[in-house]
Structures are given as C-alpha cells and as structure tokens.
Amino acid sequence: MLHLNDYQTGLVPILLREGRKNDPFFHGIGTLFSIHNMGYQGIFPPSSLDLLGLDPSLAYPTGPLEFYGKVNFMKAAVLHADLINTVSERYAQEIQTTEEFGFGLEGVLRTRRRDLLGILNGIDTEVWDPATDKLIPVNYSAKDLQGKKENKIRLLESMELRSSRRFRSSA
C-alpha cells in the first residue's frame, strides 16, 4: 500500500493504473490518498501533461484530469486511489457538500463516498502518555522532563549511536 499525501502525489494512482499496468512489480499495489486541505488541488495548464509524458487525452472534457479546462492532480487521485481519507470525519463529510468546502470537487468526492474515510488527525493522549507508558524505559511528564532525556540516551545507546555532549544535555 502506498500512502499518498495531497496533490503533489495525486498522479501516482493514475500512473500505476495506466502507465504501469503491465509491469508485474506494481501489480496489486494499493493506494491511500490523504487530503489535508481541499484548497490546494494542484491545478495546472493542460500543457503540463506534455512535460510529464502523459497522454493529453486524460484531460479531455470531463476526463480524469480535466477541471474547467485545466489539469487537476487531486481530481486524478480522488478518482483513481483505492481509498481516500481526510483529517477528520467531519471534514470528510464537509468536502462532499458544497463548493465552499469541496472547491469544485464535491461531486467527484460524492462518487467515491464509500471509499472516503475521515480519521482524526493526532494522537490518543491516554494511550500514548509518557507518564504511564510501560513501553518506554523511564516515564516523564510535562512537569518533569528528566525521563525524556534518559529515554533519548538509552535509545541512542541501543542503536549504537553516539550522542554529542550538547545533545545529551538537552531534553
């Protein structure tokens, strides 16, 4: 599974499907496309396909890359990734509703609603609490960071890496 983030990687799913479909190395590789901000879709002139060596027919009207006469990398990913996720369940719903949230791709996103998930961005602070974590050598908290320093030292030692004096003195 390839985890792709935002428009910069938006062409990967279509390249795997179209450009590498006969290459056994890429057979069966899935793609997960993560959307962090719909406002940044990677919209370029159609001539960009020539620079990328892609078939210009991909940008025909209503085609997989076409977006109001231009090329849209995010649209390509939304249409061709195996799964799509966003930074929260609410955002996954919002971007399918109106142009205000979907920036013109709300209809395309609705066609993939079964493959569109919202996963809350961040960590579970109860599970990943260094004050109670049994998987680290020394517990620590925001009030007492001494354990953090000791954990760094032990990690470096376990990896047989040297630490500089300056590094050892900081938490």
Please, could you describe this protein's structure?
- The protein is built from eight helices and seven strands.
- It has 171 residues and is an alpha/beta fold.
- The protein has two domains: 2-118, 3-Layer(aba) Sandwich (Rossmann fold); 125-171, no CATH class.
- Strand 4 (66-67) and strand 5 (70-72) form a beta hairpin.
- Mean pLDDT is 90; it is low at 167-171.
Secondary structure: elements and pairs:
Blueprint: E1 2-5, H1 12-19, E2 31-35, E3 43-44, H2 48-52, E4 66-67, E5 70-72, H3 73-80, E6 83-86, H4 89-94, H5 99-102, H6 106-111, E7 116-118, H7 146-158, H8 165-169
Parallel strand pairs: 1-2, 2-6, 6-7
Antiparallel strand pairs: 3-5, 4-5
CATH C-level class of the largest domain is: Alpha Beta
Ends distance: 35 Å
Shape: elongated
- Calculate Rg over CA atoms: 22 Å
How many domain regions? 2
Give helix % range: 25-40%
Essential attributes:
single chain; 171 residues; alpha/beta; Rossmann fold; 2 domains; four-stranded parallel beta sheet; three-stranded antiparallel beta sheet; elongated; disordered C terminus
